[in-house]
Amino acid sequence: MEKKDILKREADGWMASPAGESRVPLERKKIAIVGVGLIGGSLALQLHEKKISSKLTGVEINEFHAQKALELELVDEILPIDDAIQQSEVIILATPVDNLVTLLPHVLNKITNQIVIDLGSTKSQLIEAVKDHPKRSRYVAAHPMWGTEYSGPQAAVKGAFEKVAVVICNARDSDTDALEWTKKMFGKIGMRLLEMEARAHDLHAAYVSHISHITSFALANTVLEKEREEEAIFELASAGFESTVRLAKSNPAMWVPIFMQNRENVLDVLNEHITQLKKFKSCLEKENYDYLLELIEHANKIRGIIR
Question: E strands of 180-268, at which residues?
Fold first, then answer.
């Protein structure tokens, strides 16, 4: 089956629920967040504000980040991971995806009946790594479709996840109680729930997120290569340029592992993107401005999808 067919089939099969708080009471739990950076820190703010956590423990190997997370009161304390697992009812993993592949099995090895949630941007490789684990059913695979170009606990944003989609992958493989608590948690912080298979998620993510970052990185490198005078870039930069190249400021330690894990899908969409760029290049080379107009008018149809 062609990838575009998978994309359409899975898109048609999305299960979604509206954004906003669930009316069903949510049991407060002792929660550990492993990786108190942009995503983990922003979630911590929401867990505090919405009174979802009765105690919030951070796990952070970066000493500066650990200290900053405490100073900003994102977490109540910082503990080593095994201690945090032992005293928590929910463990949320918010580290780069390359780390998750070894971290998730370790956490599942240590739990009794706790809920484990990851927030990684790719899912297929991670889910494959624990598919036969005896505690697999205590794990819920999730991806909040939100982020900024900044990193670290100081980048945490209040209200970051409100009215934002969160994808839960392979939900049928998670225990009902773990899945339902996770859904209620995301609902209480105002997120819109989607469910899909991991393979479809990674394909969609390549189209709506990963290619955007590659394009931004490439554009930034293009400008830096052609425009040696940094002051000229600053003086002439328009709002359009700034919004397009904003993602180029993103942390490479986060994005290289994402591209590695989603390599096949990223290459697929990157090839299509290159094809589109060649069409624009050809129009200008051949002075075919009628076709150039058609290309731009076709692109304008995105208005009906993104408002």
Answer: 192-196
Is the CATH number 3.40.50.720 carried by domain 15-196? Answer: yes
Whole-prediction pTM: 0.84
Which CATH class name applies to 202-304? mainly alpha
Q: Is the pLDDT of residue 13 over 50?
A: no
Longest dimension (CA), the chain: 68
Task: Indicate the domain borders of the chain.
Answer: 15-196, 202-304
| pLDDT of 227 higher than 80 | no
Under 8 Å CB-to-CB from 189, ≥6 apart: which residues? 21, 43, 46, 47, 50, 52, 161, 162
Burial of 199 (0-12, 13-18, 19+ CB in 10 A): middle
117's enclosing H/E stretch is strand 115-118
The kind and range of the H/E element at 127 are helix 124-129
Amino acid at 59: V
CA 66 – CA 225 distance, rounded (Å): 37
Rounded to whole angstroms, how far apart are CA atoms 118 and 139?
8
Other C-beta atoms lying within 10 Å of the C-beta of residue 23:
7
HEC letters along 58-104:
EECCCHHHHHHHHHCCCCCEECCHHHHHHHCCEEEECCCHHHHHHHH
The count of other CB atoms within 10 Å of the CB of residue 21 is 14
Both structure tokens of 239: 């709002």
Instruction: Determine the average pLDDT of the residues in 41-67.
Output: 97
